[in-house]
Amino acid sequence: MNQPSSEPLFQRLEFARLEPEVMQARARAWSECIQGRRSVREFSSDPIPSGVLDACIQAAASAPSGAHRQPWTFVVVTSAAKKRAIRLAAEAEEQVFWREKISPEWRRALGPLGVDEHKPFLEAAPALIVVFRHVHGLEDGHKVANYYTQESVGIAVGFLLCALHQAGLASLTHTPSPMGFLQTVLERPAHERAFVLIPVGYPARDCQVPALVRKPLDEVRLFA
Fold first, then answer.
1. Tens digit of pLDDT for each residue in 139-171?
2. Is residue 68 one of the residues assigned to a domain?
3. Is residue 70 part of a domain?
4. pLDDT average, residue stretch 59-67
5. Range of 129's domain?
6. CATH classification of the domain holding 188
7. How many CB atoms lie under 10 A from the CB of residue 177?
8. Most exposed residue of 19, 54, 74, 185, measured as fewest CB within 10 angstroms of its CB?
């Protein structure tokens, strides 16, 4: 029997090199666009147009990953019953966190952001995207190793947030701790772990966000 070749398969890269002025213009335009993204906790119930989330998730799933294992699953939740179950479970975990786990320093840091144990946005948003990380893979029912899964899924989530913003949607990264209840509510297999919970939709009409000041470029960018 012929054994499959272990030689890697390659194809020609389709790459269009841009003129410097075009590169500069596109870089500035994208920088201005993404700087307008904010974490939103007040959502309209208006539905998201068909196909938009699929396109955004397809963009996220194009992210690089360790050994090209693609160790992610994106679960889109629109069912009112499932959103309710997720909110109740998340708030139960948050109540324990705020009562028993949070340090005084952490509480002070969160104070100006208006964050507490109440998570109404988990029901108000028309959709939740729960991103799961595959701690290992499965091939023909057998366990196979995955590599750099934290980094890989983190990059994919970054792609997803950018795609959602570019599409005209608001989002929030929510990470209740622990998040095992998401695996149960959404009936995910044992090798998947919840990585982040992202409410998605349009901002509520009178949505408020904290007045934040970001660090200037010269403080976050160095030359070496």
1. 988 999 999 999 999 999 999 999 999 999 999
2. yes
3. yes
4. 98
5. 63-202
6. 3.40.109.10
7. 11
8. 19
Residues written for the chain:
224
The pTM score is 0.94
Domain-embedded: residue 101:
yes
92: tokens are 């139960």
Contact partners, residue 195, CB within 8 Å, separation at least 6? 72, 131, 132, 133, 153, 154, 157
Contact indicator for 179, 192 with CB cutoff of 8 Å:
no
The reported pLDDT for the residue numbered 4 is 52
Place of tokens 């990585």: 195
Does residue 108 lie in a domain region?
yes
What pLDDT shows up at residue 147? 98
